[in-house]
């Protein structure tokens, strides 16, 4: 095996694999180090709901054969209300999707090493020069990229990321058959991706049903383990307890059965990234973190972060006289904030406000969504304060005061 490449990537998730596809397509030598064994991949890392939209499918050339079900709408539910919006999307078979990215990257010229657990950066002259994996094995690169997710063995040791415990979100998902997809009294979930705001089911978070055809669906919930969760949580309840509670109390699941071998657990951090790169190094995907804070969409965001990192790498590698210093890789930071996660501050504030609200306000929110026009809703979703204000009422003043206090506390903690 070679021991020197233009780019070394740790992690074969959507971010790392897409970055490798783009870098190899530009003619550079790239190797991806993946912890899992190839014959089991991705058994350990098959942790995404895999709901996405056509913009991702077309932008990254994803084939139809990794799609479980194309959807026509997004449904938002509260305890007693719901809102339906026409929005074409796709629910992917996440394992097939990840295997496709690897196979396509290899055809383009990327090299993959499985059973390769990254442990530490190799430093020379104060800069990263390569990666140590499996204890004593080494590989070197002009640029190193960490795409390992929250474990972040390289980014943490380079002080590029500082993932906070209070921003740690956990999730659980099962695939079911026998679900009553069009149950009277509920929204029709045929060909739909549904997100539910209900603290009885997911305190300080949300739950979901993603239709995957006929009477089957992906069903899960997640929440951030912070004060929003503690505010509404039941003493001693685990995420499994909340899932069982939902399954026992929602009539749509009365005849449902879990599909064997289709259980997934995952985690991510919902916070604003600080540093994204340093000399000869970039962090991408959930290492940063990149997941959308409001609705948890991660696939498109991770793929985009891999793509803009490939652009930044190319901007240095194509010139013999330009070193990939932090200054010269700064285009990654610029593209990340412009194209991957614009208005990230506003969307984080929206997320905190949303999960502070009680169930009664969620019911009112569904009615508010019905009265506003599509343009206003689109602007609010992008973090436009004027549009967000149209969703607020006088009764929300106490929530805004609590949000301001929490925001101040977070700022003060960051200074300590």
Description of the molecule:
This is FAD dependent oxidoreductase. Residues 5-305 form the FAD-binding domain. InterPro entries: Dggglyphlred_Halo (IPR054884), FAD-bd (IPR002938), FAD/NAD-bd_sf (IPR036188), Geranylgeranyl_reductase (IPR050407). Pfam families: FAD_binding_3. GO terms for molecular function: FAD binding. The protein is an alpha/beta fold and 416 residues long. The protein folds into three domains: 4-50 and 93-163 and 271-340, FAD/NAD(P)-binding domain, CATH 3.50.50; 166-269, D-Amino Acid Oxidase, Chain A, domain 2, CATH 3.30.9; 344-415, no CATH class. The chain has 13 helices and 16 strands. Strands 1, 2, 6, 7, 8, 9, 15 and 16 form an eight-stranded mixed beta sheet that branches. The protein has an eight-stranded mixed beta sheet with strand order 3-5-4-11-12-13-10-14. Helix 1 runs parallel beside helix 3 (94-108), helix 1 (14-25) runs parallel beside helix 7 and helix 7 (299-317) packs antiparallel against helix 8. The longest helix has 19 residues, at 299-317. The radius of gyration is 22 Å and the shape is globular.
